[in-house]
Design a protein that fits this description.
This protein is an alpha+beta fold. The strands form two sheets. Strands 1-4-5-6-7-8-9-10 form an eight-stranded antiparallel β-barrel. Strands 2-3 form a two-stranded antiparallel sheet.
């Protein structure tokens, strides 16, 4: 009888250890999402805010982004890139070219980031 309790105790312990990792979520990017990770510099012009500034967007593998020194998040929804910075959220259709080193973003609608990105339309970025 004592042997059965020891065996049962060992099995329960192993199950607890094995199941303890089940609540952990992994931040795995799809191959398409991985293309976005990096620093992107606008090549379609500059914007004027106390002088000429070339827009740079930094997208990290954990879903964080930096735009004009402000932090936010990025995500993929329905084949669009969604940028959320401060209280603004905007979706962009995208096209990669030049072996995934050039990124063209076209706003799905006119929104607050269009003012940041010079105007509505397509904006081109190169990987840094």
């Amino acid at each position: 009888m004592k042997q059965q309790f020891i065996t049962l105790g060992v099995l329960v312990s192993l199950m607890c250890v094995g199941l303890s990792g089940c609540t952990q979520t992994h931040n795995t990017l799809t191959p398409e999402e991985s293309k976005f990770v990096g620093t992107w510099k606008a090549t379609t012009g500059t914007m004027t805010m106390q002088g000429n500034i070339t827009l740079t967007i930094n997208l990290t593998s954990d879903g964080a982004c930096t735009l004009l020194g402000k932090t936010g998040t990025w995500d993929m929804k329905n084949d669009t890139l969604v940028l959320s910075v401060l209280k603004y959220r905007e979706a962009y259709h995208y096209t990669f070219s030049d072996n995934n080193n050039t990124l063209a973003l076209t706003s799905t609608e006119i929104g607050p980031f269009d003012a940041i990105m010079y105007s509505s339309g397509t904006h081109t970025f190169t990987r840094q």
